Amino acid sequence: MIEKYLKNLEYDKIIKFIADYCDSEPGKEDALKIRPLYDIDKIEDELNKIQEAVSYISSYGTISFLFKNLDDIIKKAEIGFLLNTKQLLKVAGFLALISKVKAYLKNIKDEGNYPILSCFNEKLMVMKELWEKINSVIISEEEIADDASPLLRNLRKQKVKTNEKIKNTLNSIITSSSKELQEPIITVRQGRYVVPVKQEYKGSFKGLIHDQSSSGATLFIEPMQVVELNNNLKQLELLEQQEIERILSELSHLVSENADAIKENAIIMKELDLVFAKAKYSIEINASKPQFNEKGYLNFKNARHPLIEPEKVVPINIYLGDKFDTLVITGPNTGGKTVTLKTVGLLTLMALSGLNIPADEGSEVALFNDVFVDIGDEQSIEQSLSTFSAHMINIVQILNKVSSKSLVLLDELGAGTDPTEGAALAMSILDYLHNIGARTIATTHYSELKQYALKMVGIENASVEFDVNTLKPTYRLTIGIPGKSNAFEISMRLGLPQEIIENAKSYITEDVLKFEDLLKDLEEKRNEAEKTRLEVETLEREIQQIKREYEMKNSKIQEEREKILEKAKIKAKKLLDTAKATSEEIIKKLREADKCDNKNKIIEEARLKLKNNINELEDVLTKTKKSTYHNVPKDITPGQSLYIVPLDQNGTALSKPDRDGNVEMQAGILKIKVNITNLRLINEGVMKDEAEKGFTRFLNEKTSNISTSIDVRGKNLDEAIMEVDKYIDDAYLAGLKQITIIHGKGTGILRSGISQLLNRNKHVKSHRLGVYGEGGDGVTIVEIEGK
């Protein structure tokens, strides 16, 4: 790929954006080297990496891959150089980053979803021992830890002691020789402790002169009393430096031993940084993965130029290489022709480089070998070339290298010379490219090329739209219709006198005028068709919305119906279970309490009585609607209660029947329309009497037979809670003030669960554990609210 073509399409700016998203120096360096690939497997591999990274960022956020280039440091360590603290800290920082990235990539729970990232993660080697060793020794770029070695710690302790001795000695000298000193201070000269002595006491103050002031009035003398101490200090500092160098040498050797692993990690980290940078850029421009083919077919859906601001860019749909391989785009200046060319070229280069493209999913790109470009003003003042000549030189170079697997983008083909000759030359160039089989997109102003594209097989017209009312381009691209020049319309809108426009038309041949009129008619019809299409799409969306709302309402109705039926079943079963439990309780009590001779007779009478009671209750609960819901109503008034057959539920009429017999009904939270044939009158008096009689009989039986205690020992928590909850309701209906729940001690699960139930039951006034004589912690005593 020739670099100037990449530059013409602003490919370098895309690469710069990706480099800016990289955190590491090596990542940025590799990003700037990104170029189109010509191997479909390599391209797909790069795209798959980006897809995984985009998905991973969306699920787990991102991480910084910031690290410096370590190549020079590693090379120095390998050849035996002594690494300094700054270099070793860079190595340690990189090793720490590896651990962070490994921890970040641990979020990969299913390797099937992230096979590439999983592979990266497996290759990364955590070098904890080397990292901890460097960190334990080096505190900062200027400081080695005291505990780096026992010898270093001992030397530094000796230094501290020697320093203290020197300072104590000098302080004593300052105190005793104050008149001889210029100032009572201790300072350092040439790395040795000295005091400032007046010039006149030079002979009497014993010591070594190391410096003097600029005026000569002050001498900086090292007193003889501290010379030996200073010598000792210097010796300790020398030994300390030697030990530090030994420690650094040891660390440098460790780095050298692990050089291969560090370099391998650096390569992986660099690749990860670049992959995630590409993914971040893809997310930024809302890009998608392109599909590739080797048939020379190109189809961009809602393609957007990535360098135009998102709120300003107008998406285009453009295809090439199927029914036609040459596209001629016409339209006025600033209408978007050049932007279209650049969008196609730049997105093709991005796709060939293994990058996602700012277009809808399903967009296709051919595996081109070359992308040739002639865009912009190539005029060269140095070579004294005209615009036309410069373009021709570029086109000649293109024609010498073009093949059937090339994409050729030509802007204003044939411009800059005599229109007739320019148009003829442009058509001849397009013929040549078409015969070779190259995929070509060319922009032009020449009307001859519009007619040429209409006549030639495999060559198609396209146009960019221009609004003559606002005198602004819309940047919309239409394939299949050539564009109008709109020169007369634009001139008239700008105020050019009508007589001049009419006179100008007289200079144009009748065929050209007819052709322009035909284009105008086609454009009007296309606009009408587009308007109709948009209306149809709007209606389709409305229909789909109505369908979704209907399905949603129908679903809600079914759900509500199921809930009502389920609730009724549960209520019926609860009543029956309660009645049966009550009968068993009565029988049990009779057997225990009755000691007379005819106890069996009494028991049988009680059983028969309860059985009759249960049968009556079952009759009430299971009685079909036919006994309480009668004829179809002949007339309905708003507010009337009616039985809704499809819902098996009573509802309230909200309206009179319409002409189709539909009535708006309120059934619980639902408002629905029901045909009058699906409604039944309710015999409310009969139903109310039957319900009240049945309930009264049930309540009387319940009051006379309910026990003051319930035993749930041996049951699981769910069973126990259901039975206790039902029992509390029965106790409340029976008017009991206090009940006992026997749950046993055990593990405490039943006691705890029942306590939570009692806390939220509205019929419970208070509850407590039993005391001695009541059952202790094995029972709970409950006070019931009065009715």
From TrEMBL:
Alphabetic keyword roster: ATP-binding, Coiled coil, DNA-binding, Endonuclease, Hydrolase, Nuclease, Nucleotide-binding, RNA-binding, rRNA-binding
Record domain Smr: where: 710-785
Gene Ontology biological-process annotations: mismatch repair; negative regulation of DNA recombination; rescue of stalled ribosome
Record GO terms (molecular function): ATP binding; ATP hydrolysis activity; ATP-dependent DNA damage sensor activity; endonuclease activity; mismatched DNA binding; ribosomal large subunit binding; rRNA binding
SUPFAM superfamilies referenced in this protein's UniProt entry, alphabetically: DNA repair protein MutS, domain III (SSF48334), P-loop containing nucleoside triphosphate hydrolases (SSF52540), SMR domain-like (SSF160443)
Signal peptide (from-to): none
Positions of ATP binding: 331-338
Coiled coil: 512-627
Subunit and partners: Homodimer. Binds to stalled ribosomes, contacting rRNA.
HAMAP family hit by this protein: MutS2
The family this protein is said to belong to: Belongs to the DNA mismatch repair MutS family. MutS2 subfamily.
Protein name from the UniProt record: Endonuclease MutS2
Organism: Aceticella autotrophica
